[in-house]
Predict the structure.
Amino acid sequence: MKYFFLILPLFVFMGCKAVIENQDENSTQVEKNMVIPAYFYDENLSQKVTKANLDDMIVIVNPNNGPGDKNDSYYTNFITNLVNAHKIPIGYVYTKYSNRNLDEVENDIDKWIKLYPKIKGFFIDEVSSNKDDLTYYKTLSDYIHQKGDYYIELNPGTMPDKGYFDISDSVVVYEDRVKYYDYNVCKDYPDKSAVIIYGANRNDMKNIIKNSNCKYYYITDDNLPNPYDSLPSYFDEEINELK
């Protein structure tokens, strides 16, 4: 998701390929929340996120495809305000699907902690989903935990090998357009699964939250080339649907 300023009957719903399976009445429903890719440099939008009436919301901050090389007061204030508002700000770090040198990735972790000491965790992007690459991410997870009690969210954007759930607090199991969304994508690990969906209208948003059993959601009507440079037009309604 490298977007930043300078991502039981079966039926087809609203012309989409999304498939809904009725939830078992005895299945455990997780407490739902939001993860926001806040890839904008806008005081009004950041204040809207900070004031959202939803505690423990995860907010991904991304100064420059990572922490950048110097402190930016906008992000310092944003992170501080999020913490004071009982939100969880986490810093963006990319890994090129395990092809980025691990020393460089760990250096980004160190920069985040130095430049923005109130950061509460890390959003690890461009994550491989393969079992063969798990050692790379296990090493990174261990490195982060050596630094402190930080939240770790991995983003393969699809369902990865089960080992990825063991080394993180949450995993983005779907990141794509609404038309391909599968309502069952979170069924195996509902309490650790997140979905990020763009190009979704208000009814899509409500139906996805109602009929999916995921822990974290971000659903927006924004779209490519950067669906994360603003907030959804129905942001307040989405918050209410999750409460």
About this structure: The chain is about 30% helix and 20% strand. The longest strand covers residues 170-177.
